């Protein structure tokens, strides 16, 4: 069953056509990685998928709640960790307060942060903040969880910590769409990869198919990354 279907999505900002007829399908339990050069439209696609942006054309269907984890965590600075996690489920989803708190504590436990419930974001490391923001997204019980470069603001050690959390979620069959520059991670964890270039899907397939693709732009992109 597909939990997300985006069909023929187009989006322009002024004269710039950022998404030019993109279609994406994500099946239940699947992990889709989206890779591609800066400016190719990856974040715009995710923002359309999560209703933060309205496409100019095309159709989006998703089953139930979607969640989004940002590059820069985007926690509310004036809320404690536990309030960051419980606020939307209580206020937006109108769920039972005790139940939400109980689940939030379990999520913090799962993220290895059970001692940080009353801390404020500024008291946490980047990796801890990102784990809180993953817990916050999960607290909404999303059917699909989207990540926009979840590790690019983190140093290598903290990056590994977050990638492990995402890997564990994949093992639990959480349906996820991950924009990432971590090629090894995409290769190991994703079921399917989309290589986006200039607003189109240039290559799509299994990690094996995508990484061995003869597509010129894909080869250039991988060459630039390995030259770094
Ligand atoms: N709100 C906006 N207003 C105007 N232009 C925008 C807006 N959002 C994105 N763009 C432009 O759309 C293009 C694609 O941006 P997008 O953020 O989707 O790229 P990206 O693939 O996520 O890049 P990166 O890897 O650097 O994050 C860029 O040229 C960007 O400047
Ligand atoms: Mg981006």
Low-confidence stretches: none
Reported for the largest beta sheet, the result is: 6 strands, mixed
Proportion of beta-strand residues? 25-35%
From the alpha carbons, calculate the radius of gyration and give it in angstroms. Answer: 18 Å
Q: Give the ligands present.
A: adenosine-5'-triphosphate, magnesium ion
**How far is the N terminus from the C terminus?**
40 Å
User: Largest sheet, order of strands side by side?
Assistant: 5-6-7-3-8-9
Mean pLDDT: 95
SS summary, helix count:
8
Task: Tell me the number of structural domains.
Answer: 2
Helix content: 25-40%
Structural class: alpha/beta
The helix-strand sequence is EEEHEEHHHEHEHEEHH
Strand elements, count: 9
> What is the CATH topology assignment of the largest domain?
Rossmann fold
Q: What shape does the CA trace take?
A: globular
Which CATH architecture of the largest domain would you pick?
Answer: 3-Layer(aba) Sandwich
CATH class of the largest domain: Alpha Beta
CATH superfamily of the largest domain: P-loop containing nucleotide triphosphate hydrolases
């Amino acid at each position: 069953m597909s939990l997300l279907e985006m069909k023929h999505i187009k989006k322009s900002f002024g004269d710039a056509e950022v998404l030019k007829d993109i279609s994406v399908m994500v099946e239940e339990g699947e992990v889709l990685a989206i890779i591609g050069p800066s400016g190719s439209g990856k974040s715009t696609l995710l923002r359309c998928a999560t209703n933060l942006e309205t496409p100019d054309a095309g159709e989006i269907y998703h089953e139930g709640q979607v969640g989004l984890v940002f590059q820069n965590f985007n926690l509310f600075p004036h809320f404690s960790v536990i309030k960051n996690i419980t606020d939307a489920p209580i206020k937006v989803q109108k769920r039972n307060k005790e139940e939400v708190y109980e689940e939030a504590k379990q999520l913090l436990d799962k993220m290895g942060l059970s001692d940080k419930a009353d801390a404020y974001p500024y008291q946490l490391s980047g990796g801890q903040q990102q784990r809180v923001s993953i817990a916050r997204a999960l607290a909404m019980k999303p059917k699909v969880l989207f990540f926009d470069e979840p590790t690019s603001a983190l140093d290598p050690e903290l990056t590994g910590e977050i990638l492990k959390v995402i890997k564990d979620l994949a093992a639990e069959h959480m349906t996820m769409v991950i924009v990432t520059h971590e090629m090894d991670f995409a290769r190991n964890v994703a079921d399917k990869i989309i290589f986006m270039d200039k607003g189109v899907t240039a290559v799509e397939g299994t990690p094996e198919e995508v990484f061995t693709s003869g597509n010129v732009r894909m080869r250039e992109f991988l060459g630039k990354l390995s030259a770094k």
